[in-house]
Every structure is written in C-alpha cells, then in structure tokens.
Design a protein that fits this description.
Elements: E1 4-9, H1 16-27, E2 30-33, H2 34-48, H3 55-64, E3 67-72, E4 75-80, E5 83-84, H4 92-101, H5 105-120, E6 125-130, H6 133-137, E7 143-148, H7 151-164, H8 171-187, E8 200-203, H9 209-223
Parallel strand pairs: 1-6, 1-7, 2-6, 7-8
Antiparallel strand pairs: 3-4, 4-5
Helix pairs in contact: 1-9, 2-4, 3-5, 4-8, 7-8
The structure holds cytidine-5'-monophosphate.
Catalytic activity: CMP + ATP = CDP + ADP; dCMP + ATP = dCDP + ADP
GO cellular component, one term: cytosol
Protein name: Cytidylate kinase
Length: 224
C-alpha cells in the first residue's frame, strides 16, 4: 500500500513551509517542498540563459534536471545536480522567475512524475506543500489543507525570513512582489492556486502557527 499523502496548499507566506516542516518531524513523514522544485527549474533556466517562455528549451532542461531533498539537522536542504542550492533558490529574483516558469504547462506536466515519485518513495507518509497538490498532483490525497493569511501578515513573514537570511528589502517591496506573485499564480490558465473542494481551510492570521500544526496533526491522526 502507498504512503499516507498530505497536501498543503496556499499562497506565498501563509506559513506552509514552517507548518509542513514541523508536521513532517512530528509524524515522521517525508517532506516534499514543490515550490523548491519550481525554483530549481527557474535557477537552472537563469544559469543557462533560457527564456522563461521557451517551451522547447524548458522541456529539454527538465530531462536533465536532478533534484533531491536531504534533511540536515532541522533543515530540509535542496540539492540541484548534487549542489546545495537551498539559499540561492530563495533569492527574490528566483521567486519571480519561478512564478514565470511555473505558468508554462510544459513545465507543470513535466514535473508531475517527479513530485509523485518523491512522495511515493516515502515509507510511512509524505507531506507535499505547494499550490496545486490537492487539485492536480494528488487529487486523491488522504488529507488536504489550504492555508491562508492576510497579505500584510504574509508579507511580514516573508520579510522577516529574508532579513534573517541577510537579504535586506523593504516591507513595501516584499508586499508588492507578493501581491504580483499571488495574482500570477491565481490567474494562470493551468493549475492555478485554488483550494480543493475537500480541503480543510485554515487562516493563520488568526491562529499561531503552532496551533495550525496542532489542528493539522489532529486531522491527520484521525485518518491514519
Ligand atoms: O512555495 P514557493 O514560494 O517556494 O513557490 C515558488 C513559486 O513556484 C510559486 O510562486 C508558484 O508560482 C510556483 N509553484 C507552483 N506550484 C506549486 C508550488 C510552487 O506553481 N505546487
């Protein structure tokens, strides 16, 4: 039988990463950060000078890409061709470019098998965080969640995250980028950011993330 599949979707800065990481650790589940996969594609395209709307080149790139996740201490690291790109893929430029490449159907389709394989390789269960996990990647997930928060709170979280990594950007810039990225992600033709009908929705503007983790864990335990 397959591992227990948990889908966590929502916009940027809703707390998905923090919540998924804590939940994965508590449950002993694997964690698949699908945003990191799109970020790796964007980084590779950037490095190779491939235009973000060049479908033929993007498809060829996907045939060469090697992505692995590795837990180091408390952190989930991303390896692209064996190189740790965990910090590099968080740069604001890569965020915007990831949003661009992720709107190409050829990229989304090309990454489906990889996302599913990384999850199905897990022993006990897997948590996938992204935008279209509950709707497209695993429509039959065992538990689906959609995390939301006000755009101000989401921008503040992202701002603090970047600040801790030594990236100094104004809160206004972070908010503007985020509004743009949310709009692009929600209005694209293929697999837009959208809650699955059967997803449990939580607003992390009114709940501390520790409480969100608690509620998700409770829901999952009931279905395990
Ligand atoms: O979650 P994160 O901010 O790292 O995702 C980066 C970008 O990748 C998003 O803005 C979105 O455009 C894209 N993405 C996606 N589908 C997913 C995960 C991420 O389109 N499942």
């Amino acid at each position: 039988s397959r591992p227990f599949i948990v889908a966590i979707d929502g916009p940027a800065g809703a707390g998905k990463s923090t919540v998924s990481k804590l939940l994965a650790r508590r449950l002993g589940f694997a964690l698949v950060d699908t945003g990191a996969i799109y970020r790796c594609v964007a980084l590779m395209a950037q490095r190779e000078g491939i235009a973000f709307d060049d479908d033929a080149q993007l498809e060829a790139l996907l045939g060469r890409i090697h992505i692995h996740f590795q837990v180091v201490g408390e952190e989930n690291h991303v390896l692209l061709d064996g190189q740790d790109v965990s910090s590099e893929i968080r740069a604001p430029e890569v965020s915007m470019n990831a949003s661009q490449v992720s709107s190409r159907p050829v990229v989304r389709t090309g990454l489906l098998a990889l996302q599913r394989r990384l999850a199905l390789e897990a022993e006990k269960g897997a948590i996938l965080e992204g935008r279209d996990i509950g709707t497209v990647v695993f429509p039959d997930a065992d538990a689906k969640f959609f995390l939301e928060a006000s755009s101000e709170i989401r921008a503040r979280r992202r701002y603090e995250e970047l600040f801790q990594k030594g990236v100094e950007r104004s809160l206004e810039d972070v908010l503007a980028d985020q509004v743009q990225r949310d709009r692009d992600d929600s209005t694209r033709a293929v697999a837009p950011l959208k809650a699955a009908e059967d997803a449990v929705r939580l607003d992390s503007s009114v709940l501390p993330l520790s409480e969100v983790v608690h509620q998700l864990e409770h829901e999952i335990q009931q279905r395990l």
